Amino acid sequence: MPDSDHLLAVHEPPYMGGLNGVQREAVETLDGPVLVLAGAGTGKTRVLTTRLVHLIATRRAGPGQILAVTFTNKAAREMRDRIGALLAPP
Questions:
Q1: Rounded to an integer, what distance in angstroms lies between the CA atom of residue 47 and that of residue 19?
Q2: How far apart are CA 49 and CA 55, in angstroms?
Q3: Which of 18, 38, 60, 86 is most buried when burial is the number of CB atoms within 10 A of its CB?
Q4: Is pLDDT at 82 greater than 80 in this prediction?
Q5: Per-residue pLDDT tens for 11-54?
Q6: What is the dihedral of CA 76, 77, 79, 80, to 10 degrees?
Q7: 10 falls in which pLDDT band (50, 70, 90)?
Q8: Number of Cβ atoms within 10 Å of the Cβ of 2
């Protein structure tokens, strides 16, 4: 019989691939706010975009029910593009 880690990996959504444990915890925490505080190049944008995709994919929120605020238009475009790519059908 396969172990539980193997079963989780088999049924894991593709957008969750490549996240480390702390990132995964931030993405999977769906009740209430999550503070993502980390240095440059540590995957903050990846965590935020994956969390938004996870909220939509698990039907916890619709795209029209999410407000994401960034400091620059460039960052907003990057997040929009990443979310669109993650939500696009394979």
A1: 8
A2: 10
A3: 86
A4: yes
A5: 889 999 999 999 999 999 988 888 989 898 899 989 999 999 99
A6: 110
A7: low
A8: 8
